[in-house]
Design a protein that fits this description.
By secondary structure, the chain is an all-alpha fold. The protein is about 75% helix and about 0% strand. It is globular, with a radius of gyration of 21 Å. The termini are far apart. About 45% of the residues are buried.
């Protein structure tokens, strides 16, 4: 009986949201159109250039079996900190390098390949949500705040938030490891390049759709909001890039760090879109993002007390979105590492074929 009532309430809420959405689209047609254009431009100039390569390379790392092999020596550390197998630690590290949606997709791929249990994959997906170095240092630090050190401080605070949140998740979520997980060699894809590109393309397209919808929502909120501060906070809660564009230079750095740790609804939807066969508990996922935002803000405040940095004068006309591309040392290192992994995977496959023929 309770399930029927809950289902009925959900239908009423969904129908109400659809009706309100239709009204707003008809009432603010041009505003919605401008928001959609802005979202598409953001996807073309920032999202695809900065994330597509990382999505492809992270898929190659998972599908080649390298993630399991490289992190096996860190198995004790992973189990002590996060109560996860070594492959779960690989998901977290790839998320720190690649940015927000990479970790969720990697966790889903490992689960689909049989390299990790469903409960461990859910736990890894709940932990591996964070901004990448290119976004924080290049875009937020250099372009918006006019201070690279501020971006580095935010990156350190973000990593601190991820690690402490990971410890909390590891001790609050129960998980059952696979009794016989597939070995690294068994996880190797026979069409590594094709599968990695296909997976990255599918995930990127879904993420772009979520970003476009969220930017349209922000445009409408900006039109009907009576106070610009409400628009600023709503923008940060919905879409982190637009939120940072509005917050930087006008609000304290630790407040910006909270929203970066939280990620924004757009990032949450992107993560859900990347987890095809891995349905996570959305309420718990949202709760962990709030916890991560609070920890990230506290870490940023503490680091500012030790290493004070100055924020440059904000000028929205100078902060072009194109600077958030992944042309960083971390991105280049990941590219080289994954290229070596790719060559090694091909070599192992050829060796196996030759041994099979002999």
């Amino acid at each position: 009986m309770k399930d029927k009532k809950l289902f009925r309430y959900r239908k009423i809420i969904t129908l109400s949201a659809i009706v309100v959405g239709c009204y707003l689209c008809l009432r603010y047609t041009q505003v919605c159109a401008d928001g959609i254009k802005k979202g598409i431009l953001f996807c073309i100039e920032v999202l695809v250039p900065s994330l597509y390569v990382f999505m492809m390379l992270s898929a190659a790392v998972i599908r080649s079996g390298i993630a399991v092999s490289v992190t096996r020596p860190l198995g004790k550390l992973s189990r002590f900190l996060f109560r996860l197998p070594p492959s779960g630690l690989a998901v977290i590290l790839l998320s720190i390098l690649g940015g927000y949606p990479v970790g969720a997709r990697c966790a889903a791929m490992l689960y689909e390949q049989g390299g990790i249990s469903r409960s461990d994959a859910e736990k890894a997906a709940d932990i591996a949500v964070c901004a990448g170095p290119g976004f924080l240092i290049n875009y937020v630090g250099n372009a918006l705040l006019g201070n690279r050190q501020a971006g580095i401080l935010l990156l350190c605070a973000e990593i601190t938030g991820v690690l402490i949140t990971g410890v909390i998740v590891g001790r609050t979520m129960r998980s059952t490891p696979l009794p016989h997980p597939r070995s690294a060699n068994a996880l190797v894809s026979h069409n590594l390049l094709i599968d990695s590109v296909t997976d990255a393309s599918r995930a990127t397209l879904r993420m772009c759709g979520m970003v476009v919808i969220c930017t349209a929502m922000i445009a409408v909120i900006g039109e009907i909001s009576p106070d610009e501060r409400i628009t600023d906070v709503a923008s940060a809660l919905i879409e982190i890039t637009e939120g940072c564009h509005r917050l930087c230079g006008h609000y304290p750095l630790y407040m910006i760090a909270f929203f970066i740790g939280f990620g924004g609804i757009s990032v949450h939807l992107q993560a859900f879109a990347g987890m095809d066969e891995l349905p996570v508990k959305k309420g718990l996922f949202f709760l962990y993002r709030i916890i991560q935002g609070i920890i990230t803000a506290a870490a940023a405040y503490s680091y500012l007390m030790i290493f004070p940095v100055e924020q440059g004068v904000f000028n929205s006309t100078d902060a072009r979105l194109t600077v958030a591309k992944s042309a960083t040392l971390a991105g280049s290192s990941a590219l080289v590492m994954c290229s070596v992994c790719f060559i090694g995977a091909i070599h192992r496959r050829r060796t196996g074929l030759e041994q099979g023929h002999t």
